[in-house]
Amino acid sequence: MIEEKGILFILSGPSGVGKGTVRKELFERKTELRYSISITTRGMRPGEVDGVDYFFKTNEEFERLIDENKLLEYAKFVNNYYGTPKDYVMETLDKGHDVFLEIEVQGAMQVKKNFPEGVFIFLFPPSLEELKNRIVNRGTENEDVIIDRLKEARNEIEMMDAYDYVVVNDDVDKAVAKIQAIIQSEHCKRERIAAQYKKILEDELS
After folding, report:
1. Which of 31, 40, 57, 132 sits between 20 and 30 A of 147, alpha carbons compared?
2. Which amino acids are annotated as binding site for ATP, given as ranges?
3. Which residues of the chain are in CATH 3.30.63.10 domains?
4. Is 175 left (phi over 0), alpha (psi -120 to 50) or beta?
5. Dmax over Cα atoms in the chain, in whole Å?
6. Considering only CA atoms, which of 178, 143, 179, 148 is closest in space to residue 15?
């Protein structure tokens, strides 16, 4: 019997492209994926559960994890740390479960450095005009912030070459279907299972 290790899938893309929406729709469908729970130093909000929504840590605990190289990636937003715990991801992969990360482009580049065997998927907007409309329609940013986000989005789109796959998010259902197809095809890749099949053949012939 082939005992496959899990695969780490990383979904990333510019702010406003719809990463969260696509990830939620993917997980609402029947899936064997495990979502990687992030670590944060921000306060727990009403209804949140430690170890379900986030792993909640103090600043000191988080900085110790950085020093001990226990994070696949991390960043600081508005004086709070956010990061992906390496041990949790590795243990889940070792159990044969696929792990799914939904993170910003800078975080994805850190993961690529620390775990290059991951599968990197870039979620692409149908156009920059559409991306601007999505950011504007959030209604949470002023004009200066919108311009900054669009400049950053252009820079992030130029980093697309670092990814394995590109999925255009012009329709959430279609984008999710493409990601499901990517997951399936990755499990069928020859190099993933060749070594395991060779070991079985060697065991049977010895």
Report:
1. 40
2. 13-20
3. 37-97
4. alpha
5. 70
6. 148
| Partners of residue 141 on adjacent β-strands | none
Give the residue numbers of the binding site: 13-20
Query: Looking up tokens 């009403």, which residue turns up?
Result: 46
Q: Identify the sign of the CA torsion 9, 180, 48, 138.
A: positive
DSSP letter string over 135-195?
Answer: HHHH--S-HHHHHHHHHHHHHHHTTGGG-SEEEE-SSHHHHHHHHHHHHHHHHT-HHHHHH
The CATH fold assigned to 37-97 is Guanylate Kinase phosphate binding domain (3.30.63)
Which homologous superfamily is 1-33+98-206 in?
P-loop containing nucleotide triphosphate hydrolases (3.40.50.300)
Q: Which tokens is 11 given? A: 């979904």
pTM above 0.85, yes or no: no
Q: What is the pLDDT of residues 89-138, one digit of tens each?
A: 999 999 999 999 998 888 999 999 999 999 999 998 887 788 778 777 76
| SS3 state of residue 97 | coil
